[in-house]
Amino acid sequence: MSRGRFIALEGIDGSGTTSQRGALAEALRGRGHVVLETNEPSSGSIGRLARERLAHSAKPLDRGALALLFAADRLDHVATEIEPALAAGRIVLTDRYLMSSWAYQSMDCEPQWVRTINARAPWPDLTLVLEVPATEAMRRVSARRQRQGPQLEIYETLALQERLARAYAELARDRSLANVTVIDGTGSMERVTEALLEACEAIGL
Ligand code: TYD
């Protein structure tokens, strides 16, 4: 059996990675692929701990310790979910992965150290970066939080999201990184899904 393909969706908070993961997975299934949908922080015990400490109300965790939690969660996620699914020939579609740590944790920690602690995480076959202006993304996040709660997480401020948008823009255009595609996330849900699907076709799916 041939190995599956590993696709990561990335972008600032409110860029649409979660909704688009579902829509893209459906579109790929419609083409006969078997797709595992997953996310980071993962649903495993380390991922749950990271998510808990991201809430504004949680006792603040040292940012280096948080970076290590994300990195540990990632290796556990790769070993227990991602790698077995790829070995079984499935497409793995994750809402956030390695580039999230490079962008987010590099605001708090030395960027090279963030790369070092994540060095064992395999690079995806395709990284799709959804670009949405920080003002629009924060509007979406605030509306969602009002509907569903809970309260905002530590990175969900306009100033930090502006910084993150710049960090993602730079990473997305770094020619030394393989198979990264920038997608305009401001269009209709359907238009964005179509653009994501086209990028998947470009790697032979
Ligand atoms: P997110 O997927 O946006 O969760 P939610 O569905 O609750 O909005 O991820 C939660 C936060 O975690 C988000 O602000 C990004 C941050 N994050 C990091 O800082 N580093 C990482 O490595 C990952 C995976 C997420």
- The CATH class, by name, is Alpha Beta
- Report the end-to-end length measured between terminal Cα atoms: 16 Å
CA-based gyration radius: 16 Å
Low-confidence stretches: none
For the record, the CATH architecture stands as 3-Layer(aba) Sandwich
How would you sum up the global shape?
globular
CATH fold name: Rossmann fold
Fraction of residues in β-strands: 5-15%
Mean pLDDT: 96
- Find the structural class using helix and strand composition: alpha/beta
**Number of H- or I-type helical stretches:** 8
Care to count the β-strands? 5
Order of helices and strands: EHEHHEHHEHHEH
Oligomer: single chain
Bound molecule kinds, no repeats? thymidine-5'-diphosphate
Number of domains: 1
How would you characterize this protein structure?
It contains 8 helices and 5 strands, in the order βαβααβααβααβα. By secondary structure, the protein is of the alpha/beta class. The chain has one domain: Rossmann fold (3-Layer(aba) Sandwich), CATH 3.40.50. It has a 5-stranded parallel β-sheet, sandwiched between helices. Helix 1 packs across helix 8 (189-202) and helix 6 packs across helix 7. The longest helix is centred in the middle third of the chain and has 25 residues, at 63-87. 37% of the residues are buried. The structure holds thymidine-5'-diphosphate. The site of thymidine-5'-diphosphate has 15 residues, from helix 4.
